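ok here's the first one, seq then struct tokens
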Amino acid sequence: IETIADRVIMLAGGSVAFDGSLDDVRRSTDGVVCDFFSRRAMPAAARGRSELERFTDNTAGGAGGQV
């Protein structure tokens, strides 16, 4: 990241989870940010539905296989 950026904007759950400098992201105590930069997966409950589930779901406004 240091090679190509001087700011970080991180999305999680469809909204901005972090917006700041590289130094700010290194100092962050936010669990989602720390887990991402420590390369730890979020717990399944925190992630919500998978992209495959969203794509194939016909009942909750998903694409239902339609592209």
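and now the second one, same deal
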Amino acid sequence: MQSPMNVKTSFLGSSGIQPSGNGRRSDRDDGGTDPHTLPNEITTGTTTVGAVGTDGVVLAADRRASLGGKFVTNQSARKIEPVADRTAVAFSGSVSDAQSFVRHLRAELRGYELRHGDAASVETAATVAGDLVRRGPYRILDLVLAGVDDGPAVYQIGGGGGVMDTAYAASGSGMQLAYGSLEGGYEPDLPLADLRRVVAIAVQSATERDTASGDGMTIATITADSLDLEQFGSVADGVASTGDGAGNVGSNDPNAIEESDEEVR
């Protein structure tokens, strides 16, 4: 029997850029860095992406953590964390805030299960996550939460705690580049194999231009049967793991992937 969760490595990290996309308004309107973020706060100029497919959801993120966006402090940060058997969250913002938030959300969802005798739905998990962000004390934190229960679902949770369901979402400093790739490659009802490649290429596209994103990739694949979390030492390895996938997205030429890897590094 396949384990419901295959977690291969562990670390937390993320970025403080406000999310938007698919015509939705951001929860912040200042257009800049949160004034409560400390000068020496470890963050990541993250790119996180999540999308819905026919039989599951995929989350992906880069692995770079930085100090104030100016100095790389960690090249193997994990910005996707499981919070339930079939639910995970990708985050951008302060590392300390992200660590505290994930612990708090896991505890809340476990408490819900004990009180109600059943696991929280993905929608409930997103609502609880939004409430936690809204109440604080998290200074700067933007989330993409995804999971599968009755069906696959992705929710974008802004820094003010607003919760929006969506077919796909991106956050972090590379989000605009990721959205450009997603909107060119994403289609409703993509099979999971193709969806993995579309999402991975969206992260890769961001790392090629966003200097605050890079240093590897984490991919979470969630179905009704399992939550698999994979870590890759380079962005190109993450893309290569998805195979040929959707033929109309990116390049299937392995030499082109290697050239992209050189640019990322």
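notes on #2: The radius of gyration is 17 Å. The longest strand covers residues 141-148.
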